[in-house]
Amino acid sequence: MSKQVENKEINFGFLRARRLYPSKMPFPEKMKIAHYTNLDGLIGIVRERGFWLSEHRCLNDLVELESGKKIAISVLKKFGTVDCDSTFRDILHSAAAKLSKHQFLPLYICSFSKDLDSLALWRGYAKNGKGVSIVFDYDPGNMFFTTLPHMRAVDVFYKNKDKERICNEIIKIFLDEYNKDIKNNDPPVLDDWLKDKWITDLAEGLLYVCVSFKHEAFSSEKEVRVIAYNEKDFNGLEYRTVKERIVPYINSARLYKGHDEYEKGDVQLPISKVIIGPTANQNEMNKSIEKFLKDHNYSEVRVCSSNIPFRE
């Protein structure tokens, strides 16, 4: 083992950076958020006390993730022109090359919105007069939204200037930690293994934030995402049909199996209310949803109708 690898203060700056960069994607603040779905989705969420997180490659978000990756690559290349030594400049260029070839590992996403009664979202996610908006009291400490390191909630960023700022902040964290290593060992000598760790961890740090990027054209969705990274944490994949395709997903409820409070039914989803989408049969839907919720110990949850008028 090289002398450099033995010295943690010198050679483990990339580990310090890896611990720090999640702070650049903070948890959303406490608020009400809504999940738009149909009646079958409502039944599944309430019965199982969990969400279905679909694989990103089966969603429209794949294009968005690739677009976010291009922004990260562009920022890396621009950052390489600033005042840093030749070794770190090589790390930046190599991280950009790594990102350009990198295929995203499967990510699993469940979408929510800060807009609780949105015409655009009714049209997109709760069609045919059978949609509901399940409104939750989101709290970053609630296990149904955040169970680290397996699953967490993130705000979605739409403006390119915000995406570029976050990427710059991630790179700056790595540069600062690298400079600390230089200060402690003037300058550090990086062997191939160590240099590759800097490159890989920087690339992965940027990929980590790319999952929160989406095109500005969709900014009206005001999206909050719950994201998971490893299906094995959820007892593997399950499958469902969406239109004319089979979509793999994970069920967040599987994460809580074996937890005493969850198994006993003592922990309930933080549902605030259920909004019925624009439909000609709101009264009938209202009664059926109220009964269903009461039968599953959600009798305090209010059921109401959308403020958006129904049109044939």
Describe this structure in words.
There is one protein chain. With 312 residues, the chain is of the alpha+beta class. The protein has one domain. 42% of the residues lie in helices and 19% in strands. The protein is built from eleven helices and ten strands. The strands form two sheets. A six-stranded antiparallel sheet has the order 5-6-3-2-8-7, with no helix packed on it. Strands 1-4-9-10 form a four-stranded mixed sheet. A hairpin with a 2-residue loop joins strand 7 and strand 8. It is elongated. The N and C termini lie far apart (73 Å).
Topology:
Elements: H1 3-6, H2 8-11, H3 13-20, E1 31-38, H4 39-48, E2 52-55, H5 61-79, H6 86-101, E3 108-113, H7 119-125, E4 131-138, E5 151-155, H8 160-184, H9 192-210, E6 223-228, E7 238-242, E8 245-251, H10 260-264, E9 271-276, H11 282-295, E10 302-305
Parallel strand pairs: 9-10
Antiparallel strand pairs: 1-4, 2-3, 2-8, 3-6, 4-9, 5-6, 7-8
Structural key phrases:
312 residues, alpha+beta, four-stranded mixed beta sheet, 11 helices, 19% strand, elongated
- In the sheet with the most strands, the strands line up as 5-6-3-2-8-7
Overall average pLDDT: 87
Give the H and E element order.
HHHEHEHHEHEEHHEEEHEHE
Give the assembly state of these chains: single chain
Q: Over all CA atoms, what is the radius of gyration?
A: 23 Å
Helix content: 40-55%
Structural class: alpha+beta
User: Into how many domains do the coordinates divide?
Assistant: 1
**General shape:** elongated
Number of helices: 11
Largest beta-sheet characterization = 6 strands, antiparallel
The percent range for strand residues is 15-25%
Number of strands: 10
Q: What is the CA-CA span between the terminal residues?
A: 73 Å
Low-confidence stretches: 1-10
